[in-house]
Amino acid sequence: MKKVFVTGATGLLGTNVIIKLLKDGYFVIALVRQKSKYLGEEDKNLKLIEGDLAADLSLFLKEVDCFIHIAAETRQDLLSYEDYKNINYDMVVKVFTQAKVCGIKRFLFISSANTLGHGSVENPGNEQKIQHYPFTKSHYAQSKVEAENYLLQHRNIMDIVILNPTFMIGAYDSKPSSGKIIFWAWKKKLVFYPKGGKNFVHAEDAANGVVEAVKKGKNGEKYLLAQENLSYKEFFMKVNKITDQNPVMIPIPNTILKILGWIGDGLRKLNIKTNLCSPHMKALQICNYYSNQKSVNELGIKYQSIDKAIKDAVQYFTKNNTY
């Protein structure tokens, strides 16, 4: 039985990854801040370790075959690059160093699709395209780029595989995190939507991609975990249909988003935390689209529809009164 160490175990992707690993017969050691925060079921092949990324993990890394690093700072209201660098780069270096010292052979890093160049429906982004604006101005995305570059420089020491999921939707989104976008439209009489779009992926499929990469991922390679390129209007219309509602759909002019970005820039200069800023507002205006061909061809991923992802998320939120 292969032994895997996982960070970020209580998040949307982390929970789905652990469920998939256990189903596939792995023994999983998972780092959590609190054991009670883990949403999956108990399992004899799952060992939860309470602690944080700054702790000495070496005691738990003996005979581990693969380290899967999912934990990250993903909040979008932090003000400086340093706010992201501490977790998304410095801690990556720390846990990678511990994994190296303990003789682990394989290190999977969960990054973001936004470290890669996005594209259009006709010409979607892929693993070869270079990141460009507005994500070159995203502190979160840049901290992930820096971590990717560090790890790839050490691929001669340990097998490094980088996974780049797009926007994940699905069950076990307890905060909720990315699933908040569903609440933008769910149970609303008026739905205001930006004119851009993005790529969405079922969290189960992203988790499957991570687990398949444990077995099939090639050293030094990146894999987009992506499914459906949709405009925000198309996505919200799917939410409307699945939740059996018929709100009035109103587009948000790009000018309004631009002004909100300027307001956010000003607030940030006053050290006021806000999700608003020019790069974030620009991201809502563009087609942030990607291709999944590499993960399909090399990892063998069979992606589910985004309708299924929305249904699973809505059912989870309803069951857990997350609305």
Structure notes:
The protein has a single domain, classed as NAD(P)-binding Rossmann-like Domain (Rossmann fold, 3-Layer(aba) Sandwich), CATH 3.40.50.720. Helices cover 37% and strands 18% of the residues. The protein has 10 helices and 13 strands. The protein has helices spanning 12-23, 81-101, 139-152, 180-183, 203-216, 232-242, 254-269, 278-283, 293-299, 306-319, and strands at residues 3-6, 27-32, 46-50, 66-69, 106-110, 159-165, 167-169, 190-193, 197-202, 221-225, 228-231, 248-251, 287-288. The strands form 3 sheets. The chain has a 7-stranded parallel sheet with strand order 3-2-1-4-5-6-10, with helices on both faces. Strands 7, 9, 11 and 13 form a 4-stranded mixed sheet that branches. A two-stranded parallel ribbon has the order 8-12. The longest helix is centred in the first third of the chain and has 21 residues, at 81-101. The termini are far apart. The mean pLDDT is 95.
